[in-house]
Structures are given as C-alpha cells and as structure tokens.
C-alpha cells in the first residue's frame, strides 16, 4: 500500500460549519450558539437531526439538518467532510456517557483529522475557534491528495 501524498486546499471565507451534540450536551451547544449567533450568521450551518431543529428554533436562522446521529447523521456529516463540504466541526460530545453509536463518533473524528479541518469538542475550544482571525478569511490547509492516490493504484484487469 502506498503512502498518501498531500496537497493544499483553500477553505473559503464563508465556512460550512457542522454542529453536533450528544443529548446531555445539547443545552451547552444551544447556549454557546446563542452567544456566538452573530458570528455563526456569517456562515452556513449543518447539524445532525434534533440538534439542527433545536438550533433553528433557538437562533431563528437556517440550519440544514441531517438525520439523527445514532441513525446515521454522524456518518452523513463525515461524508460531507470527506467531500470537502464541511470546513469546521463543532462536536459537543459527552465523555461521561457511553454511546451506542460510538464507532460512528470515532469515525467522524477520524475523518475530520484526515481532512485536516478544525474541530472543537467543548465550549472553550469552540470559543477559541470562532474567535480566530482565520474564521472569516480564506485559509490554506494540507489535505490528502486523492487524485494522486487514485493515479498510483493498480486496477485489476477483468476477462480471460
């Protein structure tokens, strides 16, 4: 297996921010989002099911909703990260409660690391992330060079 090569990509000035929260953390995320409403309003928001509905109601602004996290919403957000359709992940996860969909959560955090997007896992890190000077400007980052990866793979031949 060959090593992955890397290239650069430019995150846009208007970020696509994914917002995810476990049940016991939804209140924390809602409080944080209310405090950060003005900054969030300059970006496109996507969230897992219930979190998205609560954010739309609380903030009075558009939030695209996936399905509920345990039903595949975490995987939907992960797919968007891999497709480069999410630029930032704010995921308030509960370190005190075991989650039945823990493998999905680990996969989501892994794909965020693979595609080198900023991740905040609690209010403090989310505050730091949203107060960054880089939030509202284009930003270059290193990502896997998928085209190079595909070009280096041998494709099995079929037929006689």
Key features of this structure:
alpha/beta; Rossmann fold; two-stranded antiparallel sheet; 7 helices; 19% strand
How many β-strand stretches? Answer: 7
Characterize the quaternary organization of these chains. single chain
Number of alpha- plus pi-helical segments: 7
Q: Major sheet: size, sense and barrel closure?
A: 5 strands, parallel
Approximate helicity band: 25-40%
- Poorly predicted residue ranges: none
**Alpha carbon gyration radius:** 17 Å
* CATH architecture grouping: 3-Layer(aba) Sandwich
- The CATH superfamily is Methylglyoxal synthase-like domain
N-C termini distance: 26 Å
Shape: globular
- Which structural class matches the secondary elements? alpha/beta
Into which percentage range does the β-strand content fall? 15-25%
Quick structural summary:
By secondary structure, the chain is an alpha/beta fold. It contains seven helices and seven strands, in the order E-E-H-H-E-H-E-H-E-H-E-H-E-H. About 40% of the residues lie in helices and about 20% in strands.
Could you explain how this protein is built, in words?
With 160 residues, this protein is an alpha/beta fold. The chain has a single domain, classed as Methylglyoxal synthase-like domain (Rossmann fold). It is 39% helix and 19% strand. The chain contains 7 helices and 7 strands. It has helices at residues 26-35, 37-40, 49-59, 73-82, 102-114, 123-130, 146-151; strands at 6-11, 16-21, 44-47, 64-65, 88-92, 119-120, 139-144. The protein has a 5-stranded parallel beta sheet, sandwiched between helices. Strands 1-7 form a two-stranded antiparallel sheet. Helix 1 (26-35) runs parallel beside helix 3 (49-59). It starts with 5 loop residues before the first strand and ends in a 9-residue tail after the last helix. 28% of the residues are buried. It holds the Pfam family MGS.
């Amino acid at each position: 297996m060959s090593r992955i090569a890397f290239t650069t990509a430019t995150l846009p000035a208007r970020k696509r921010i994914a917002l995810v929260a476990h049940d016991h953390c939804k209140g924390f995320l809602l409080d944080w989002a209310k405090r950060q409403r003005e900054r969030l309003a300059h970006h496109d928001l996507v969230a897992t099911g219930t979190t998205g509905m609560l954010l739309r109601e609380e903030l009075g602004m558009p939030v695209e909703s996936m399905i509920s996290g345990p039903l595949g919403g975490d995987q939907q957000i992960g797919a968007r990260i891999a497709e480069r359709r999410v630029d930032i992940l704010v995921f308030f996860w509960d370190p005190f409660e075991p989650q039945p969909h823990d493998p999905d959560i680990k996969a989501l955090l892994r794909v965020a690391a693979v595609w080198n997007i900023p991740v905040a896992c609690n209010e403090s890190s989310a505050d730091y992330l949203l107060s960054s000077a880089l939030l509202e400007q284009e930003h270059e980052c290193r990502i896997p060079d998928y085209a190079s990866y595909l070009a280096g793979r041998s494709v099995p031949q079929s037929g006689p």
